[in-house]
Design goal:
This protein is α+β, with helices and mostly antiparallel strands. The protein is built from seven helices and ten strands. This is Lipoprotein.
Length: about 280
C-alpha cells in the first residue's frame, strides 16, 4: 500500500478532514470487544471500519509501519497532522512516548465473583490457580505449575516485610523454565478492588483486575518469549488458553508484531476484534 493511501486512511479515521461515509459512525453499534473494553475502563481505543481492517491485513511495508498505521486508525496512537508516517514512527522512537494507557500492553480483564475468595489478597492466589489450570489444559504437553515464593526482606532503611513472587512456570521442549507472568500476581501491596461486574456478566460483586493501579493486570512472558513460534502460533496458544478460562476472564492483546497487527480480546476461545459490524471474514483469510 502506498504511503499516501496510509496517510489518507489515517487522516479519515482520525477526522483530520472530511471523508464521505455512507453511514454515520455514531449510528453504528459498538463491537463486542469495545463493549468489554469500555466496561474495563479503556478510554482511547475505538472500533475501526471493516475496510480499514482489510487494508491493514493486506498492507505492504515494514511491521513497524503496519502497526503504527493500525494504531493511528484505532486511536491508540495520536497522529500529528501534516507529519508523514515515517517521520511519526521516527518521532515515536526518539521520544519517551505518551503516558501509560490501558491499551498499551497485553493484560487480563478479570471480574472474579467475590464469593470465590474471603479477601483481596486471597483472591490473588485463587486467580493464580485458575490461570495455571487453564495453561495446563491449553498446553497438555507442558509441565505447568503455579509458583508462590515468599521471602523475608529486612532492608537497612525500612520495616521488615515478606516479598511475594508469583508466576506460572511452563516447561516445554525447547522452552525450559519459561513463565507466564502478570501484574495481577504482584498485587499483594495493591490488591484488586471490589466493584460491580458489568451487566453482560450479571452485575455481581467482583474482584476486578484490569487497571493501571489497584488490580494492575499486565501480561507477559510465554508465549511472547518463545522465539521459535510464529505470530499465528502465539495467537493460537492464547486463544486456547482463553478457551479454558472462566466466563469472567478476558485476555486483551494490543497491536503486537509478535501476535497480530490488530487489537483484540480473547474470550472462551473466541477472538473479538475492534471492528464495526460488517466484517465477516476471518483475519486469517
Amino acid at each position: 500500500m502506498h504511503l499516501e493511501k496510509w496517510i489518507l486512511m489515517s487522516a479519515c479515521a482520525l477526522g483530520l478532514f472530511g471523508c464521505v461515509a455512507p453511514v454515520s459512525k455514531d449510528a453504528r453499534p459498538p463491537s463486542e470487544a469495545l463493549v468489554i473494553a469500555r466496561a474495563a475502563g479503556f478510554e482511547n481505543i475505538k472500533d475501526i471500519s471493516p475496510e480499514v481492517l482489510r487494508s491493514l491485513l493486506d498492507a505492504e511495508g515494514s511491521p513497524l509501519q503496519t502497526l503504527h498505521a493500525a494504531g493511528l486508525v484505532a486511536g491508540v496512537f495520536k497522529g500529528a497532522p501534516g507529519l508523514p508516517l515515517g517521520a511519526e514512527v521516527a518521532l515515536l522512537l526518539a521520544t519517551s512516548g505518551p503516558r501509560r494507557r490501558l491499551e498499551d500492553s497485553p493484560r487480563l480483564l478479570v471480574w472474579m465473583p467475590r464469593e470465590m475468595a474471603a479477601s483481596p489478597p486471597e483472591s490473588i492466589n485463587v486467580l493464580g490457580h485458575v490461570l495455571a489450570n487453564a495453561v495446563a489444559a491449553a498446553l497438555p504437553e507442558a509441565k505447568v505449575e503455579f509458583i508462590h515464593r515468599q521471602t523475608e526482606k529486612d532492608p537497612p532503611l525500612g520495616r521488615r516485610y515478606i516479598h511475594h513472587e508469583r508466576y506460572i512456570r511452563v516447561d516445554l521442549p525447547g522452552c525450559k523454565d519459561c513463565a507466564l507472568r502478570t501484574g495481577a500476581f504482584a498485587n499483594y501491596l495493591r490488591p484488586p478492588r471490589v466493584q460491580q461486574a458489568p451487566e453482560f456478566l450479571g452485575a455481581y460483586e467482583a474482584y476486578f483486575w484490569g487497571t493501571l493501579s489497584d488490580g494492575d493486570s499486565w501480561l507477559a512472558g510465554y508465549p511472547w518469549t518463545a522465539e521459535d513460534l510464529e505470530p499465528r502460533q502465539r495467537r493460537e496458544i492464547l486463544r486456547r488458553l482463553s478457551a479454558h478460562l472462566p466466563m469472567w476472564v478476558y485476555i486483551y492483546v494490543p497491536f503486537d508484531e509478535k501476535i497480530a497487527p490488530y487489537p483484540h480480546i480473547l474470550h472462551r476461545g473466541r477472538e473479538l476484534i475492534f471492528v464495526e459490524p460488517g466484517f465477516d471474514d476471518s483475519p486469517e483469510g
